[in-house]
Design a protein that fits this description.
Order of helices and strands: HHEHEEEEEEEEHEEE
Organism: Roseovarius pelagicus
Strand order of the largest sheet: 6-3-2-1-7-10-11-12
Number of strands: 12
Distance between the termini: 32 Å
Oligomer: single chain
Structural class: alpha/beta
Helix content: 25-40%
Number of domains: 1
CATH superfamily: NagB/RpiA/CoA transferase-like
GO molecular function: 5-formyltetrahydrofolate cyclo-ligase activity
Number of helices: 4
Family: Belongs to the 5-formyltetrahydrofolate cyclo-ligase family.
Shape: globular
Largest sheet: 8 strands, mixed
Catalytic activity: (6S)-5-formyl-5,6,7,8-tetrahydrofolate + ATP = (6R)-5,10-methenyltetrahydrofolate + ADP + phosphate
CATH topology: Rossmann fold
CATH architecture: 3-Layer(aba) Sandwich
EC number: 6.3.3.2
Length: about 180
Amino acid sequence: MTDLTAIKAAARKAALARRRDAHDAAGAGRASLLSGVLAGYRGVPLAGYMAIRTEIDPLPAMEEAAAHGPVGVPVITGEGLPLVFSRWEPGCVLKDGPFGARIPEVDDLFEPEILIVPLVAFDRNGGRLGYGGGFYDRTLEKLRARRATLAIGFAYAMQEANDLPLEPTDQPLDMLVTETEVITF
């Protein structure tokens, strides 16, 4: 294991503990700021995610956005591959996908221009620490090579960290939304 791998693992462990504490303490209305941000992009194809474990849940904002344009969720097709996105609608039939995330039962793939990105930790410079699979980094690199793609991190404020261990392949966020503020980079 390289030094950076060990440093990232320790950073993830600490950040996941902070996220768990924030999740346990959170009340209703956590997605309200995200809904407000997305209102400025009505109709633009976007992808959210189905929250797992203690991730902050973007579902209320996704439901609102779905009334105005296509909304999707990520689908993992294989290790080391970019994500694809299947169209999601409120109330659609879901099935279990990899890592416990729910995905639409019927694939209807499209390319979003906005990604709501889950994360383990973030910093004030647009840095993001994920779970370590590199799925969002590969996906953002691929999408950004084709067109402008907005990456909006969605997290609890307590997930903020200083001095994230980042690599050149880590794709930056354009914006971060917490339950208390919107940060643009």
